[in-house]
Amino acid sequence: MSEKFAAVEIISAKRDKHELSNEQIDWTIDAYTRGVIADEQMSALLMAILLNGMNNREISKWTEAMIASGEKMNWSMLDRPTVDKHSTGGVGDKITLPLAPLVAACGAAVPQLSGRGLGHTGGTLDKLESIKGWKANLSNAEMLKVIQECGAVICAAGAGLAPADKKLYALRDVTGTVQAIPLIASSIMSKKIAEGTSALVLDVKTGSGAFMSDPKDAALLARTMVDLGKNAGVKTRALVTAMDVPLGLTAGNALEIRETLEVLAGGGPSDVIELTLLLANEMLDAVGIKPKVSPEEALKNGMAMDVWRKMITAQGGDNDAPLPVAKEKMEIKATASGKLLNLDAMKVGVAAWRLGAGRQKQGEVLQLGSGIEIHAKPGDLVTKDQAILTLHTDEVARFERAIDALVGGFSIGGKDDEVKRLPLVVERIEG
Ligand code: URA
């Protein structure tokens, strides 16, 4: 078949800071999905986009073309409105786990397509796979059945959804081109728009443990995604939230499921509860639901836990099976008494990754019990020799590299020293 354009023309245009036309963008995504544009050519184009950017029209067209590369899901047969949440990823960010059943318990339908861990950040599907028998891959018919029975489903995106993004994402991961706002925004939003949700709340992380460490970049990413959602008819809003310190008191798959169960049982760490409730209220508001039972109450009275247990069972999971526990533990202790001034999310994330909670290469089997328990958060008073962290792994040999990652990861000052950290919600952006 004769092609409309040549890849090298498109690469040169972006290299020379020209705008790509709608036709050029449509062809590029289609030709790459068909294998006509080679990976080395797409790598060059991605780098040119990272360096020279794209305007709003180009980002919007790039996103539309990625959506058009696959199927679009439809939930119009459900008797309640659909709403989803997406986090750009962080350390200890287990919020989706209590949030999806909670919002379902309050009356919305939550079709939550989630991902696996990426670099130092954890993935919702990996965490759920700590539960014996739980299945991430569902057909569209199975997904519909779970959402009809339980009100919420958390699963992997099927192969038919935005296949262009799957290819592009794998290439970006190995070509140093993940961190470009047009590419992140179009990657996330193409999947969310193709998923067919009627409303979307984005949790855009900022701080050391986030992909966008600078709050200004995070706000620009949030604004770009909110505009893409709005233009596609999805009611979209975003919170830019703190990821300078890990969320909650655990980072690692089974450890985070344990913490999720505490939250669903009405307990758990205050920052996890606060962010879960904030996002639940945003999600319900976005679809105009005024729940009879408030999200706060639904966490305390067991309604959210009931939906969770049903949802886990519907996806083959055994709610009563013990969670995996790592074979080895090591405590990291305070070297002085005083106030904990910081706890660096990136360093904790990298250490958890090195302990076996994340993958070093694609497809690697995780140590589901590995990770880090956090015993003190910035602002807490600690005493000399008190454990600040407990490291968990199946292999003693992993402790050394995890400890290396934690060098400078926390500091202890005088009890009157100021703790500098981001507020939990840095900015709210609505369409
Ligand atoms: N998550 C995605 O799905 N895509 C990105 O580019 C970054 C995070």
Automatic annotation (TrEMBL):
Coiled-coil intervals: none
TM regions (residue ranges): none
Annotated SMART domains: PYNP_C
Protein's GO biological process: pyrimidine nucleobase metabolic process; pyrimidine nucleoside metabolic process
Superkingdom in the source lineage: Bacteria
GO terms under cellular component: cytosol
Recorded GO MF terms: 1,4-alpha-oligoglucan phosphorylase activity; thymidine phosphorylase activity
Record-annotated Pyrimidine nucleoside phosphorylase C-terminal domain positions: 339-413
Alphabetical keyword list: Glycosyltransferase, Transferase
Subunit structure: Homodimer.
Protein family (similarity comment): Belongs to the thymidine/pyrimidine-nucleoside phosphorylase family.
Protein name: Thymidine phosphorylase
Organism of derivation: Candidatus Nanopelagicus limnae
